[in-house]
Write a structure and sequence with these properties.
Radius of gyration: 18 Å
Distance between the termini: 24 Å
Oligomer: single chain
Number of strands: 9
Shape: globular
Helix content: 25-40%
Largest sheet: 8 strands, parallel, barrel
């Protein structure tokens, strides 16, 4: 049975004119009721630029879909100061939250994300228990209301190629939402980070480093470096910081990597299971 918790939900309550599917448990029923009634508590606000604990794709449980508002809200509920999401382009060049190039793993649909329009995704594709696929606009509305920080990875492989205009649209939406100080743009491609910086000099970027040598180069490419815990040592973290880089260490769901990240002096940690990490820290 799911735990009887009330998770912070988006400020805009979804329409409930359509009868939801029968809940598989009492916990799920309470969760759906909170969605419909808009009675879930607000998430605790974080200071702009606070990336001490980042929920990777939110904090998806087996009954929640990654990169969806419930998963992001759950990460904040368990103490995350920021959430990491993945951005992809649809066929009509709108931006949605999706890690994979295809819809098969995390939604009720199949095929490439880039082959569908936003309208098609809304009408036909959902995550578990009917959870909708968020758009960038919906994400920014939610994050602005809860004063959450965002780490947004630009996904380029397997989908539509991002144009300069696409980056300008994204950065303009972020600025108009009042979120410029609360967003870091993440990519493993230096050319993507450069185009984001060209879109606006006030944008903050993070280089997703596949290894230490490239991480060292990344300190001169972006404002910050995202380094895996297996590559992190205290000396390396100090060196990156000495070069002016904000260092985030990604450590997945493995406590061994969590311990290594702490030993390296992590001030910013990206974890795949915020609830489990919070429990581990309380031990």
């Amino acid at each position: 049975m799911l735990p009887r918790r009330r998770f912070p939900m988006p400020w805009r309550a979804p329409r409930c004119s359509v009868r939801p599917r029968r809940a598989a448990s009492l916990g799920t029923a309470l969760f759906l009721a909170a969605l419909c009634l808009g009675q879930a508590p607000a998430a605790r606000a974080a200071e702009p630029g606070d990336y001490r604990l980042v929920g990777h794709r939110g904090d998806a449980a087996s009954w929640q879909t990654e990169n969806t508002i419930p998963a992001l809200a759950r990460a904040l509920h368990f103490g995350a100061s920021a959430v990491e999401v993945d951005l992809r382009l649809t066929a009509d060049r709108r931006v949605v939250l999706m890690h994979d190039a295809t819809l098969d793993r995390t939604t009720t649909c199949s095929g490439p994300v880039a082959a569908r329009t936003v309208r098609s995704l809304r009408e036909h594709c959902t995550g578990v228990r009917g959870t909708p696929i968020p758009t960038l606009r919906g994400l920014l509305e939610w994050a602005s209301h809860h004063e959450a920080n965002l780490l947004m990875e630009i996904k380029t492989r397997g989908g539509l190629q991002w144009r300069v205009r696409d980056f300008r649209v994204v950065t303009t939406m972020v600025r108009r939402a009042g979120m410029a100080d609360r967003v870091r743009y993440l990519s493993r491609r230096p050319v993507v980070l450069r185009r984001i910086e060209l879109a606006s000099r006030h944008n903050h970027t993070q280089y997703l480093a596949p290894g230490w040598r490239l991480a060292l180069r990344g300190a001169g490419i972006a404002d910050g470096v995202n380094l895996h815990a297996s590559q992190a040592t205290r000396a390396r973290v100090r060196l990156l910081r000495a070069r002016g880089a904000q260092v985030l260490i990604r450590s997945s769901t493995n406590p061994v990597w969590w311990q290594r990240a702490h030993a390296a002096g992590a001030r910013g940690l990206v974890v795949g299971d915020v609830a489990a990490y919070a429990a581990w820290r309380r031990r």
